[in-house]
Amino acid sequence: MATAQLLHPVKKQKSSKAMVIFPDKIGSEEDSLVLVKRLFAISISCITYLRGLFPESSYGTRHLEDLCLKILREDKNCPGSLQVVRWIQGSFDALEKKYLRMAILTFYTNPKDPESVTELYQFNFRYTSNGPQMDLSSEGMRLESITRCQEIKNASTLLTRKLYMVMQNLGPLPNDVTMTMKLFYYNDVTPNDYQPSGFKEGNSSDMMFEGDPVHLKVGSVSTGHHTMKVKVTTESDRTMAMDNKLMQENIMEENSMEISHEGLDCEEEEEHVEDHLGHLEFSCSQEEGIGPRKRKVSEPEMDLTANKH
User: Fold this and answer.
1) By C-alpha distance, which of 164, 186, 173 is closest to 286?
2) Average confidence (pLDDT) over 67-88
3) If residue 54 lies in a helix (H) or strand (E), which one and from where to where?
């Protein structure tokens, strides 16, 4: 168990051979899936890196414009990184099958009470079958496609920047924390016996938040095939300097990050999330009227005790 937390600095630097982070073309469902997978992996990597969970050797380096990204990789000398990579891969399987509705990465302090969390990262996913709407003329379709692809990549870049900015400005976690990930599904399409690799049948009990929660809507990306939204819930004391930072970075504008003390976002039809006095209840309106079917949740075969670096 760690006695201190190191928040790794992320230096902005340009590379003459910057590797492609997002697909050049985002028109097909396959392109969209690649984009969403990469966004999810980048996000989990960002959280674990800037929360100081694993050593530098557990990360590779990629560049997104002038932003230096640290991407989690399989480090045989760090079992924890192998474990989280397996969680990400299991989530990919659920995404490919269009089962995954929500992935929640949480930190808790009491090993005997994992439902009482001190920090939470929420990833919501939607799937559509229509795809992007294009102009019917061939020239119009080409121009619309180019414009739409650039808009999607811009939104993906902005989401990544915002998440990095949030993580760099959060106060430290408690020294002794445990991390876990829960996967929530669309029950109407997910088989009862489905479990991605690295996961088992999970506890669907509601979570309690320790302390005074603040909810940060980091942003969303929609491709026409998939939509991914990212939100962060943390203790209010960890965000004391964040409002000023946001103003200084000129982030408080249209499609900006929203800071709320009142509850998690409830706008999705598929998702109904209530927060009352620190109570985080996850239920799904699409399941109303289906009957007594139990809400399906997966959790890791083993949680990860964070030995922060």
Assistant:
1) 186
2) 93
3) none
Q: Tokens 């990544």 label which residue?
A: 160
Query: Could you count the other beta carbons within 10 Å of the beta carbon of residue 216?
Result: 22
Which secondary-structure segment (H or E) carries 53?
Answer: none
Which residues lie below 8 Å from residue 268, measured CB to CB, with a gap of 6+? 124, 126, 229
* Range name among 105-114, 137-146, 198-207, 234-243 with the lowest pLDDT average: 137-146
> Which pTM value belongs to this model?
0.80
User: For residues 77 and 57, is the Cβ–Cβ distance under 8 A?
Assistant: yes
Residue 21, pLDDT > 70, answer: yes
Q: Which residue type, as a one-letter code, is found at position 214?
A: V
Which tokens sit at 86?
Answer: 């397996």
Percent of the chain with pLDDT over 90: 49
Q: Map tokens 């960890």 to a residue.
A: 238
Half-sphere exposure of 229 (CA within 13 A, CB side): 19
Average pLDDT over residues 136-146: 50
Q: 227: phi > 0 → left, psi -120 to 50 → alpha, else beta; which?
A: beta
Q: Which of 188, 175, 172 is nearest to 285 (CA)?
A: 188
Spatial separation of the C-alpha atoms in residues 303 and 181, rounded to whole Å: 8
